Give the backbone structure.
Amino acid sequence: MAIRTEARKIRISMMNAVHDLAVLVARDEGLFQHAGLDVEVVNIQGTARANPVGQALHNRVFDRNLETLYDSGGLDQYRMCEWGVMKRTVEASRSNQRPAKIVALGAAMSKMAIVTWPDRGIYEPEQLKDRPVAVSPFNGSHFTTLKMLEGFIKQDHIRVTHAGTMRERLEAVRRGDVAAANVMEPWISVAQKQGFRVLMEAHSTRADAASDDLDGPTLAAMFHAQARAAEMINQEPAKYAHYFVAEAGGLLEPGELQTWRLLYGPPTPYTRERFHDTYQWMLSYPDLVAPGATYEEVVDNRAWAQSP
């Protein structure tokens, strides 16, 4: 891709290493710079941090750290789980928030795992029927718990509850406050190191949202850099373990991160079929997303638009 000759500062979010690793690598390996982009990665406290995260898990989605920063103009672009981005892009205008649109299916195929403590006597997903699983409400752990358990438990017997950060969730499981918890890397590796049992796990794709301030060529350059970063991560994941070790706050050594779980790919357009399937699934649960949205209202694949 040709280097862009003009650049303005682009502010994009970084909440958790596993979701945003392609962004971090694109920045730190000079890929954004090579594409002619002036990118500022804005560090936002996410649920994978070892220390308390303030308003990252506020009960009201649009009162959380990332959402309030985006609404105030402090971010141009953010990414999170596909379902979380769907909820926020659909409901922003209905909540008098700064609008954003889904502009890509993102680079991170983050692994999420449901773990339990051996003393709980839980060996299979069916044993979680009507038992609380700790998640972050309306974030990836929430949605992937529903997705994973649906194959074993009817929707009205799946129980999810808020129990804080990844670290706090593991502590809640160990105490017996909840039956299990959904966590991601580096906390799956931390959980295994500490003796937790992994019941099930699955990859889940991020989605990217952006304001109208970012034009198609700028987004295309950003996604091209992240695609190259994804190749570099997949080729040598251990090289980037230090991001996860830092996030674990001293609970994990570089060689203890299960890097085989890390998987990244090039951002791709968000298709009409994908929108329909994801949105209809979310509508099958009460209160996951507001009804009445359309593909045209929510999605803008301008990064792949043909140049005139």
